[in-house]
Design a protein that fits this description.
This protein is an alpha/beta fold. It is built from ten helices and 16 strands. Strand 4, helix 6 and strand 5 form a beta-alpha-beta unit. Bound molecules: alpha-D-galactopyranose (GLA).
Length: about 375
């Protein structure tokens, strides 16, 4: 969890002042897809070069890369506790004996992209106490560019109570000055309502506190993020945090709901499990191309909630081909029949539609409405197009 000593700050700068044309929104035309170590390793020693290189290898051998997963991202604890004599961040040599540039080169040689982490504060979030980037923006951005970084996650711990918009904008500008295209992920946990100011500052912003590998955590975060559909679009995404799929704390039904909801909410799909030990059930979820296509749809809409009552939620996402993606999500403990009318989905009510179940990979033709029996904690997800 974020360090409690970090006082929330309130934004003092308006969207108009920060929405400069500088940020290249085309770097994230659809939600970023990739992997980050945090949800599986936290700060433990197994976060090291071997894990990261094996992950890059697995992206290629497993088909994850072909399915669209591209970023291999390091989280907190990659650095040493002190800057070097030139004031540069330096790698923890036990974890990364060959340095970070060597890891980035390896990842790039596979045709993948490489990401790194630091905090908009004096220290990062880990209690071990690694240096942060506040007031070192230029130097650290230049270092990251020299490593070949393609993605930066910028956290919020130890921020000294300083204005969030200024802190996150300063790093945006430092990244721009490097001249290197870098996807910029704002991680201030939704504390300053980044969805109201961060378009044009970062390409994505966390909307909540940290996810953990439990049904309750996933559910709470999903529901908060559902309310923010108006703020997402190409180059500016709500980020309900990284995936827990495969980490063992939820059932496969629950992990399918987690993945379905993140996909239809146009959330970044950052795998958070140790791929060296992944099961085939987990891979079937992560590699579901039809669900990924809904997430990566070029229209870039986040699904809107069209019904939410007694733990039953229907979400609809307009697709670039004029069709719709629909998720029928049952958070209750009982099996439930759920339905939505085509009218309710914004479609011509008298039309006939091809309704494809993207988990069972079966298709039917329907008129008027779609309905499904949804298991407890389950999600049935459809792609709808004109018949
Ligand atoms: C914060 C972030 C997490 C993770 C940790 C690392 O809690 O929100 O996603 O990066 O820091 O210490």
């Amino acid at each position: 969890m974020p360090d409690e000593s970090t006082a929330p700050t309130s934004p003092t700068t308006s969207a108009a002042e920060t929405d400069t044309p500088g940020l290249d929104l085309s770097l994230a035309p659809t939600p970023p897809m990739g992997w980050n170590n945090w949800n599986t390793t936290q700060d433990r020693p197994e976060f090291n070069e071997e894990l990261v290189l094996a992950t890059a290898d697995f992206f290629i051998s497993s088909g994850l890369a072909e399915a669209g997963y591209r970023y291999v991202n390091l989280d907190d604890c990659w650095a040493a506790p002190e800057r070097d004599t030139d004031g540069n961040l330096q790698p923890n040599r036990e974890r990364f004996p060959n340095g970070i540039k060597a890891v980035a080169d390896y990842v790039h040689d596979k045709g993948l992209k490489f990401g790194i982490y630091t905090s908009a504060g004096t220290h990062t979030c880990s209690p071990i106490g690694f240096p942060g980037t506040l007031d070192h923006e230029e130097q650290d951005a230049a270092l990251f560019a020299s490593y070949g970084v393609d993605y930066l996650k910028y956290d919020n711990c130890h921020n000294q109570g300083r204005d969030a918009v200024q802190r996150y904008t300063a790093m945006r500008d430092a990244l721009l000055r490097t001249g290197r295209p870098i996807v910029y992920s704002i991680c201030e946990w939704g504390q300053n309502k980044p969805w109201t100011w961060a378009k044009g500052v970062g390409h994505l912003w966390r909307t909540t506190g940290d996810i953990s590998d439990s049904w309750e955590s996933m559910l709470e975060i999903a529901k908060r993020n559902m309310a923010l559909a108006d703020y997402a679009g190409p180059g500016h995404w709500n980020d309900p945090d990284m995936l827990e799929v495969g980490n063992g704390g939820m059932t496969d039904v629950e992990y399918r709901s987690h993945f379905s909801l993140w996909a239809i909410m146009a959330a970044p799909l950052l795998i958070g499990t140790d791929l060296r030990r992944v099961t085939s059930a987990t891979m079937q979820i992560l590699l579901n191309r039809e669900v990924i296509a809904i997430n990566q749809d070029p229209l870039g809409e986040q699904a809107r909630v069209v019904r939410s009552y007694a733990g039953l939620h229907a979400l609809v996402k307009r697709l670039a081909d004029g069709g719709r993606a629909v998720a029928l999500f049952n958070e209750t403990e009982a099996e439930e029949d759920m339905s939505v009318t085509f009218l309710g989905l914004g479609l011509e009510p008298s039309g006939r539609y091809a309704v494809r179940d993207v988990w069972s990979h079966t298709e039917t033709e329907r008129s008027k409405e779609i309905s499904a029996r949804v298991p407890p904690h389950g999600t049935v997800m459809y792609r709808i197009s004109a018949a």
